[in-house]
Amino acid sequence: MQAGRRVGLSRGSRRAGAAMALPFLPGVSRDRNVGKEKFHKSQHWGFCNNVSMLVDENKPGVGGKPLPGQKLTPKHSVFPEGMGSDAPAWVAFDKQVLSFDAYFDEEVPDKNQELYRIRHCKIYFYLEDDTIQVIEPRVKNSGIPQGTIVRRHRIPLPPPHEDQFYTIDHFNINTEVTFYARKYKITDCDQFTKNFLRKMGVRLNPPTSRPDDPYTLERQKILDSMTPFRPYERIDTLKQFLEHDGHVLRFFCVWDDPESMFHDPRELVLHYYLSDDTIDIKEIVPVNSGRDAVPLFLRRDKLPKHAPMGLYQPGTITDRTVLNVLGNLVGNKSRYILDNRKAGAVHQEFYKDSDLKIGAVINVWGRKIILCDCDEFTKEYYRTKYGIEDFTPVPYKAPPLPKPEKTFPPYTGFGSEEDSLCSCMGLILKPPAKDFKKFLEKDRIGMESNILRFLAKLITDSPIDKDRKLIISYFLSDDTISVFEHVQQNSGIHGGKFLERGRIKKPGQELFKSEPSEYFKAQDLFVGARVCFYGHNFLLVDADEYTLNYMEKHANEFSVADVGVILKKLKVITEPRSREIRQLFAATDPDHNKVIEYDAFRNLIVSITGEAFSDHEIMTLGRYYGVKDECEMDLHYLLAVAQEQLKKNRFENFEQVTAVLQYNDREKCGVLPHEVCRTICKSFKLPLADDDLQALLTMFEDDNKQVEYKKFLVGLNWRENPIHAFQTVKNEDDWTRQPPIFRVKEIKYLPLLDDLFGKEE
Questions:
Q1: Alpha helices in 399-544, H assignment, sequence order
Q2: How far apart, in whole angstroms, are the C-alpha atoms of residue 17 and residue 525?
Q3: Greatest CA separation found in the chain?
């Protein structure tokens, strides 16, 4: 039983056994003792809440006051809390580093050549977190591991203050700092560091010189006195490559080939690469010249000046010359040295950038090439480096031959002229191209028809044809014209289509000719114009409101609708008779109302100018200076247009709109305010323009400006109460099937006279 009993050891016996199990290591025991000393130094037994426990030595006494002999570690830096910017240090001092030049001595006990070594280094102090980094610049062939000596971190002060760290106050010029038992002597710092320390109130010491390493100086003297016996010569072209990589000078050249059959000049482009002084040449082969297109006329390489007279065998020209000193005398072993004198070297000259300029002749392997011009980069390069300002190009191209005029055979009469002309443009037949841009811009868009309509009558002696009324429609999208005849009761003539839609040629042109024919344009049609369509003469007597508005809106295209042009033309005619014309207008207005009738105004203009003005120009003046009457739009026409729009968009929610309107009619009187009806119609997305909706609501208002919404919806209901467009035509004067045109009745003549002759004193 005793053999199976567990043997217990006291705490002291376990500690002694653990000590006996460890071998004797001086370093370990020393570290352990140091750790115990630090442990006992930093902690002690105390009471917390009447409980005995191990507490930190930094814990203050009652009331936060330090105990006798206690040194508290500062919680903040040397600056009191609250001074300076409120931004944290890692933001305020981001990427700000203090740089100090320093050195330290290092003993060399194992070498007779040097007893100590001076090593130069850089000390970087990072302001954002008070970290320090020590870096030693690398020296070629030093044999010492160089680079980062102390990695970046916070470095504690040397004992006995190892619980504190280095701050900015510990650094100054001509002082020593100790990092991990190694002393660094600070000799100088950069300008940013000096300015920063002065702003912090630090008085800077004068800088000192850095001592040189004696062994390094001795080695440098030996290296300077030595001449390498082995074949070694440094040829460095890296600097030129780094400075001018991608920089190319471009010249436009010409070569007059004497052996060419036709002695025509050959156009070339020369590229000079500044990175390695090489040249390549490319030929510009014209189209259909009969020559094969090759990638390069001269591949990229250095171009010798005296080629081919200076052509050498391969291996003759080398970068270095090597001499065999001993030959094969000593044990068949050779000894080579570099020929610094280059006695047997072959010197060959190559073209440089200084040899190239406009007008120069260069030798390209026996071919004389003239430099005629260069690009802007090349001009700027020579202007900056050599101060050249004259870059007059050398003319080398013969004046271009006159281009023969392309003639076309006359029109044969088969098909359209445009289609026949396309067959003469190429072997592959293509249909004539259409102006799709114009078609998209001038095609019908919503209420914009882009169709000019004129009322016309036939110019004839036949009493039957004199009273015939025709509508000429000009389509701006494709410049086509169609003619329809208005139906007149008991006339004996069937109305309808008079002329199929199409482009119409102007009369008096030869049929079979090479030049394209002229067609009627929009500018040829205006009120008072006489046109001839396939032998039928028409007089345009009127135009609809849309046509007049369109021509006035695009007055730059239609001179007959441009008020400015008409006034200039009228001023030239009437200026000599200004007083007489004022008396004529005043005589026409006996009541001194400052307005006259339009017919009287027209008769005055015709009597003054004769036939110099067309009816359209007189109408433009009348519309510009006329009295604008407030006219009422035809209700039936507006309802017809609105029903057509609703029908196209398939809007049939009339019952729901009625229910909402009745719900908002709290007094059940059948009327609602104008704005309430408009808002409800917009909420149902009624497919009507806002102007049309406003006009319709206005027409259904009563005397109190309240809209009778039931009548309004009954008029819009195209299912139950359809209104067709022809129902708006009430008499023969409504020839355009549009709302009645309210012509100008009265003209204000005083503004017209003021614009012509100035205001009368």
A1: 417-422, 436-442, 463-466
A2: 125
A3: 156
Cβ atoms of 273 and 281 within 8 Å: the answer is: no
**How do residues 542-583 score in pLDDT, each as one tens digit?**
998 889 989 999 999 999 999 999 999 998 888 888 888 888
Residue with tokens 């044990």: 331
755 φ/ψ angles, rounded to the nearest 5 degrees: -70, -30
Residues in the chain: 761
* Residues 639 and 723 sit within 8 Å (Cβ to Cβ): yes
Pair 111, 143: CB distance under 8 Å: no
Phi, psi (rounded to 5 degrees) for 669:
-100, -5
Alpha helix stretches (DSSP H) within 235-324 = 238-244
Rounded Cα distance between 103 and 209, Å, is 11
CA 583 vs CA 235, 580, 760: distances in Å: 103, 5, 12
Residues 6+ apart with CB under 8 A from 602: 618, 622
What is the spatial distance between Cα 264 and Cα 280, in angstroms, rounded to a whole number? 22
* Range list of H helices, 7-78: 11-21, 26-42
- Sequence-separated (6 or more) residues with CB below 8 Å from residue 151: 133
- List pLDDT tens digits, range 242-282: 999 999 999 999 998 877 777 788 999 999 999 999 999 99
Closest listed residue to residue 275, CA positions, set 304, 240, 236, 300: 240
Query: Which two structure tokens, joined as six digits, stand for 740?
Result: 């009645």
pLDDT digits (tens, 9 = 90+) for 713-731: 888 888 888 876 544 333 3
With CA atoms as reference, report the closest residue to 358 among 382, 332, 333, 331.
Answer: 382
Contact 44, 54 (CB under 8 A): yes
Strands 322-324, 298-301: pairing is unpaired
CB 715: neighbour CB atoms within 10 A? 20
Report the distance separating Cα 123 and Cα 176, nearest Å.
12
